[in-house]
Amino acid sequence: MNLKRVSVVLTVLGAIFILAGCGKSSQTDSLGNSKYAKTQTLNWTENTALATADISKATDTLSFDVLMNTQEGLYRLDKNGTPKGALATNTIITDNGRHCTFNLRKGVKWTNGDPVTAKDFVYSWQRTVAPKTASQDAFYFFQVKNAEDINSGKKPVSSLGIKADGNYKLEVTLTKPVTYFKKLLAWPLFFPMNQKVVNKLGNKYGTASKYTVSDGPFKLTKWSGTSKSWTLTKNDSYWDKKAVHLNKINELVSEDTTTSYNLFTAKKTDATLLSGQQVKNNQHNPNFVKRLPTATTRLDLNQNKVKAFKNFNIRRAFSLAINRSQLTKDVLQDGSVPLKGFVPSKMGSNPKTGEAFDKEAYVKGAVTYDLSRAKKLLQKGYKQTGVNQLHVTLLTSDTDSSKDAAEFIQADLQKLPGVKIQVQSIPFVQLISKQADKDYQITVQTWQSVFADPINFLDVFEKGSSYNTSGYDSSKYDQLLDQSENKFGNQPVKRWNNLVEAEKTLMNDQGTIPLYQVAKSQLLRTNVKNVVYNPAGVPYDWKTTYIAK
């Protein structure tokens, strides 16, 4: 599923901080001494700019991370990734999991003083699935009654399977049982929106901090829409403000890890991403933290732009020409690991045997480095397509790691006869826009899951998916996914087997070229306490973060 889209390097560095208590006893020791620093300000660095603060328009991890910290939904995930009630005080599930009734917390307000009600959820969901909104993530709502037909223009938005029963009761009707539905509800895409504010601002909504309204722990400030810095300020109207300890989170964009590292060393920031040699140099630094999120970096060949990429042998040749081990070990040097397929590790295990998905679905021939075979396959592909050379542009982000990876891929692919690669590095916000518009020949993309289930990756390449921008089309693949979700929803073993077969189909078709699972090594000051990291969704929730003395 798609957290969903990310640049070659994940767009956010941070942590979810969980504090056991929020009353007076949690803030003092047995002698009555406070454990909190006088100044509760967290200074953070990002490696890409913020794209949007509009729930319906967000597609990247950084945007969702800001939304996670400035908005509130029915649930929030705890330190174990388990959904816990936020605005939902009580949930009743009936009709074999197809009907959900949520009783909402009363007295919750938006930062403009308006009450947060069930109608705000109805409006938000309807807005996201409406065709005119053109949300790339609308397909996540397709398990809600009529959502898919609404998104395709076949039914009115008013027919969506969500309704408000008064101000504080919300009813949702699903088309099928969805075992991970509560986890989806803890993702900002399913959070409420203030209809009055959105309608008043129109296209300006979410394009700058002054064009937003919040109901979460913090509110977005000092963001112009293009600025490379912004601040999350404590929301004094938040219903659970006693649990929030930070007054401010200052976020600064630094595409260059050398710059962010120097800022950290000078004690001007509390966290920095590490790359390459920095990781090796800081292995024993007490501030060092290594993370391996469920994010994959892949190379997509746009069959709609380059007809030769419709040929399987050419796609497979490109995959076999890339030495992933050398890329991760000698170039990235940050702990990233070569992928066995599109779906990374930590995305679930066989419910019967316990075998990890990435191991069970492994298609070795799709990701193994074999330059000799790659050259033979390319020549075969040339003959089949009637071309004898391929000169294409590789589109990537302008971050350090992205450019380093792109240059390595360029060098490896140019070992193939007749292949010439030009690298074009552009700012991240521009990159995701071009990728969404299918305006590329080949590009490096990173996908971050929203929840730990293989379907959250596999549905990217389903026909009709807004993220399937490279032109992959397989009726077998689509049928396997359709059966897994709509036929075997309550039969976990059969569903699992279908998902494994779908991954193998994608790899046997070389529908995409998996590269590596992205490691996010960083330095995080030791006085930033109780860090909890969610590797399979929006990674960082600062609701209860605090700075220790």
From TrEMBL:
PROSITE patterns: PROKAR_LIPOPROTEIN. InterPro entries: Peptide/Ni-bd, SBP_5, SBP_5_dom. Keywords: Peptide transport, Protein transport, Signal, Transport. One of its GO terms (cellular component) is periplasmic space. One of its GO terms (molecular function) is peptide transmembrane transporter activity. GO terms for biological process: peptide transport. Pfam families: SBP_bac_5. It is found in: Cell envelope. Belongs to the bacterial solute-binding protein 5 family. This is Dipeptide-binding protein DppE. It comes from Lentilactobacillus parabuchneri.
